[in-house]
Amino acid sequence: MDNIxxxxxxGVKSGIERSKRSFLSFLIGLFSIGFIGGAGKVLFQYIWxxxxxxxxxxxxxxxxxxxxxxxxxxxxxxxIRFAGGTYIVIRTERGVFALSAVCTHLGCLVNWEPDAxxxxxxxxxxxxxxxxxxxxxxxxxxxxxxxxxxxxxxIEIKES
Length: 160
Ligand code: FES
What we know:
The protein has 2 domains: 1-48; 56-158, Rieske [2Fe-2S] iron-sulphur domain (Rieske Iron-sulfur Protein, 3-layer Sandwich). The chain is 20% helix and 37% strand.
């Protein structure tokens, strides 16, 4: 029979061994798909960063970007290209924050985790607070913070 194999140590034939191997192969395949999917997402974000937004102006030589409040709900975030960099703009009940979205460890793009109220890097799990300070993981430096305020129903991001 196909499902019966012989245990070399005990000489006992068992179909259970084959089902254990099949189950383990299934689990390994499942974890592989998850890992490849996660790595693919990070690679995709690195190769195709978020699009530039409209609303770019200059103020005394500094770039200023205005984002309508309706584009970023409370406890959510948006990644933008601005002043030659990629930034994450976060809106919470405490206000708005804009920080470099590039992790200071190896350069992956960070994400806002609203449940934990932390910024987390998906690559090696560096964690930052809303001011960009490192609060965990391997990042050697804080995320660069730029000025973000709410003015006339818009989030104003200013190059400093
Ligand atoms: S690249 Fe962000 S923790 Fe390693």
